[in-house]
Amino acid sequence: MEIRELRYFVAVAEELHFGKAAQRLGIAQPPLSRTITQLERRLGIALLERNSRKVTLTEAGAVLLAEGRAILSAVTAAERRTQRAATAHPSLVLAVKSGTAGELLTKLLDAYAAEPGAATVDLLLCEAHQHQQLLQDGQADVALLHLPFDSAVGLDTETLYTEKQVAVLPASHPLVSRSQVRMDDVTTLSKLPMARWPGPGGSYPEGPGAEVRNLTQLFQLIALGRSTAVIPESAGADLRRDLAAVPVLDAPPVTTVIAWPPHSRLRPVADLIRVATRL
Fold first, then answer.
1. At CB < 8 A and 24+ separation, what contacts does 216-224 make?
2. pLDDT of 139-148, one tens digit each?
3. Domain HTH lysR-type spans what residues (predicted)?
């Protein structure tokens, strides 16, 4: 299969409409239809079911859609990383969630910058569910993840540190007067339902809590008395004055790791990982 054929097929499979797919690709519809037909003929299977009203994926087509997305993502990543490696001044992209790992991030960037021949580090601030895709498609070279909240499936990782969690509440809430609370104390607050974070695919779990994507949204909702959350204690440091953090005795620990694609061969990435694990 050719990369062009995969791009065409993925566009049709996602749009389920040849006209919309052709418009998305910037080509005419007839050559798009011919390419898909040639691909099916070469594979000896039907990838799409077509009639006058709609286009649907066959079971084989669904498999090729998943595989094709992964292949195209890998091709895009290879292009981006190759281009970065060819620049006169080496650089790497570090993906981090906005508002997290602040102290660690400062120490890491300062320590790495002091290394001989250190590359330029471009920070890519992202939302909770985006790290994995950013690493897979080459937009980022390395990322800081927080387990078990973030997914590290398919990535290589090194553990940096483990920390406890705190409940973030409005500063006026009665629980703030306690030295510590338990998960049941926080999850059963009917007027302050737990905030919901997106999963790796970007979808939210079911529940009454507000949907949030970053700490700025979360803290605003908590301050307004609309939600609460249990987060790593480092993320709850230096809170605004209308919020308070209370240690949660039985919350599972959170492990911060540095993660990268397993096939990465970029020297700046290896150097940054070495500095991070030393810290």
1. 216/98, 216/99, 218/168, 219/168, 219/243, 221/195, 222/168, 222/169, 222/170, 222/192, 222/195, 223/170
2. 899 999 999 8
3. 1-58
